[in-house]
Each structure stands twice: as structure tokens, then as C-alpha cells.
Task: inverse folding
């Protein structure tokens, strides 16, 4: 039997119109369309199945990245390439955890007549103070400023923490306060009460800091020591919480209130921008509270009263502006009077006071040693 002939006959559409009544023509046509549709579907399925029957090396059209590669090639990091590595180079490719706030623009030297920035609300604005000394000074300043931000404003907003840091740096820049960060933070900590920052003498340092909040305060301190300026508090040198109302705040300029703190600037000449010198000289003391001194507790401390501190500053400023004493009749200027001895504690005074710090009893302290007598002189006169 000829199968090809049978297939050709079978594939031909048959005409049953002569055997069926006229009303069945539409039914037969529908069946034929269904039969052709089914054949088309089978052809499409067969075409889609052909790649699955191909050899594995012919499946490139279905590759996903390098999933079928026997080994994934990973490019080396810069510090892993020959010639680009040195001891500790991996440290420079680590991503920082959080970006620090943008540093203040226009960082300038404190020397000369530098222009003072001015804010319509805060008034004069502090200039940037960059503490980029390496080693002990930098680490001590960072530790002291971090502690002050943490214990004074751990629960405050970022702006509130930056404002506390700015007040501390404003004090470092003013001659009425110590000229170091640790000196400002721990001023008066030898007292049981009456320290400049309460956490240094009220037992707060006995609490173990929270790691998260300590790192947050350290990030703010790092930015402040790198030149960031919080403009909103201007040249504020004092602040207190909204829960208290000291007598001195009515005599000072209230700049702003941020969170739980109110910030103030001297209204007198002590608060003039010309009196702030934002230049860091280092020599940080130990980053720790001072030893307790019972003798100091019994003495009044004028630095605890901002108004008394301003009056003392203005009195010293008038004395300095008066200049040296007038010359005598002979035309010579009187010799300067020696400065008075510092006020020592009772314990130091019992050991001899200022006399124990003099160098007049050192061996050979009144004469130049022979080998140094010609220091600064020419060995041979030039041109001879």
C-alpha cells in the first residue's frame, strides 16, 4: 500500500457537503478549524523542544551570566594586585560606616584681620578650629570632646550634639577659659560641686557608656576637631537645660534653644568676636578629671559665674590697653614687676609653695658651661 498516497488523501480536506444537510455546514467548518489549530500548536511545541534535544555545548542561547563556567573569575582588589600593595594598604579601601558632616567652607588662618562670619539669628559665627596634631594631643582632645558630647547630649539630635561641641571649642578660643579641649571639659572637676560641666564631678563618669551612642558622639567630635562649625549657636560660651533658670542668663544674649539646651553669648565686650582666637596650640592635659581637692571646695571660684568672668576679662582688657607705665624723669622705663606666685593648694603650700618650683638651686644654673661659651659665634670670620 502506498502510504504517501494515503497520507496525501488523509491530509486533504474532505467535502461532505453533498451528504450532510445545509444546516450542518457550519458545524463541519468549526471542526476543521479546531483540527488545524491543534496541528499548529503541536508544531510550535516541537520547535521549542528542539534545543532541549541538542548537545550541551549548543545551549548558548540559554546561558545566564557565567553560571555554567567551571570556575568564576573574580577580579582582584587593588591591594591584591602586584605593585599596588603595601603593608596596611587594605585599610585605605575600607568603606566608612557613616559620612561625617561637611566641613565648613572657607577655612582660613586665624592670623591677621580675618573676616568674621555673621548669621542673622546667631550673630557672629565661630571660625573653624582644626586640631590635626597627630599623637597624644589629637587622641586626648578627641576623648575629652567625645565624653562631653556623650554625657551632656547623648539623647539630643545631631544639631544638639554639634552645638555642645561648638560651645567647648568656643571656650578653647576665648582667653577666659583653658586653651585646650581637655582643660575646658574638666575645668573645676577637682570640686565636689561647681564644675563647669556637671558630669565631671557628679559621678556620671561611673556609668559605662553605651557603645552605639559613644560612637555617635565620637563622629560628631571628629567632625568638630576637623573644622566643622555649628553656625546656629554662633559664639555661645554657655548653655543650660530648659529645666533650670540661673540668675545669669537674663544678663546674656540668648541665641537659640536646641532640644533641651538653651545657648547664650556674653552681652558685654567679652563676647566680641575679636576676643576669640581659633588657633590650636596643643599641649593637652590628661583626659581625666582632676584629683579631688578639699581645700578648693572651701574657696569661691569666680569662673563659675559667667557675669563675674566677663567683668574680670574686661578689667584685664583695660589694663592691657593702658600700656606700660609712663617713663620716669630720667627717661627710663621702670623694671616690670614680677608676676605674683600662683595660688597653690594647702598641701602644696605645706611643702614649700612656689619655692619648690624655682630653678635657682640647680647645679651650675648661674653660669654657662665652658663648652657652650662660644655658641652662636663664627668659627672663622667670613671673607678672611
Result:
Amino acid at each position: 500500500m502506498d502510504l504517501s498516497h494515503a497520507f496525501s488523501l488523509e491530509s486533504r480536506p474532505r467535502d461532505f457537503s453533498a451528504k450532510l444537510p445545509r444546516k450542518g455546514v457550519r458545524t463541519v467548518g468549526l471542526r476543521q478549524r479546531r483540527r488545524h489549530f491543534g496541528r499548529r500548536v503541536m508544531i510550535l511545541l516541537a520547535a521549542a523542544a528542539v534545543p532541549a534535544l541538542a548537545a550541551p555545548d549548543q545551549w548558548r542561547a540559554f546561558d545566564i551570566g557565567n553560571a555554567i563556567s567551571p570556575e568564576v573569575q573574580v577580579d582582584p582588589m587593588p591591594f591584591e594586585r602586584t605593585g599596588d600593595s603595601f603593608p596596611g594598604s587594605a585599610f585605605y579601601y575600607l568603606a566608612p560606616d557613616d559620612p561625617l558632616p561637611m566641613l565648613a567652607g572657607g577655612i582660613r588662618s586665624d592670623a591677621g584681620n580675618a573676616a568674621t562670619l555673621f548669621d542673622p539669628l546667631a550673630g557672629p559665627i565661630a571660625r573653624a578650629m582644626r586640631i590635626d596634631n597627630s599623637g597624644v594631643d589629637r587622641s586626648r582632645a578627641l576623648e575629652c570632646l567625645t565624653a562631653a558630647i556623650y554625657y551632656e547630649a547623648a539623647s539630643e539630635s545631631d544639631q544638639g550634639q554639634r552645638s555642645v561641641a561648638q560651645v567647648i571649642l568656643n571656650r578653647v578660643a576665648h582667653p577666659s577659659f583653658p586653651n585646650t579641649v581637655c582643660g575646658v571639659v574638666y575645668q573645676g572637676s577637682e570640686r565636689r560641686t561647681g564644675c563647669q560641666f556637671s558630669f565631671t564631678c557628679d559621678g556620671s563618669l561611673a556609668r559605662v557608656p553605651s557603645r552605639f551612642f559613644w560612637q555617635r558622639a565620637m563622629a560628631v567630635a571628629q567632625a568638630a576637631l576637623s573644622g566643622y562649625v555649628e553656625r546656629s549657636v554662633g559664639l555661645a560660651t554657655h548653655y543650660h537645660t530648659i529645666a533650670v533658670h540661673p540668675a545669669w542668663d537674663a544678663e546674656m544674649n540668648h541665641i537659640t534653644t536646641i532640644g533641651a539646651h538653651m545657648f547664650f553669648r556674653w552681652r558685654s565686650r567679652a563676647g566680641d568676636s575679636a576676643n576669640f582666637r581659633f588657633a590650636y596650640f596643643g599641649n593637652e592635659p590628661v583626659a581625666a578629671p582632676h584629683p579631688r581637692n578639699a581645700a578648693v571646695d572651701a574657696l569661691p571660684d569666680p569662673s563659675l559665674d559667667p557675669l563675674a568672668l566677663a567683668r574680670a576679662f574686661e578689667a584685664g582688657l583695660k589694663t592691657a590697653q593702658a600700656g606700660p607705665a609712663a617713663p620716669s624723669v630720667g627717661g627710663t622705663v621702670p623694671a616690670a614687676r614680677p608676676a605674683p606666685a600662683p595660688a597653690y593648694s594647702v598641701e602644696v603650700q605645706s611643702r614649700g609653695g612656689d619655692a619648690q618650683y624655682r630653678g635657682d638651686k640647680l647645679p651650675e644654673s648661674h653660669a654657662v658651661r665652658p663648652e657652650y661659651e662660644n655658641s652662636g659665634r663664627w668659627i672663622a670670620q667670613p671673607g678672611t
Observations:
- The first helix runs from residue 3 to 11.
- The chain is about 30% helix and 5% strand.
- The CA atoms of residues 17 and 25 lie 7 Å apart.
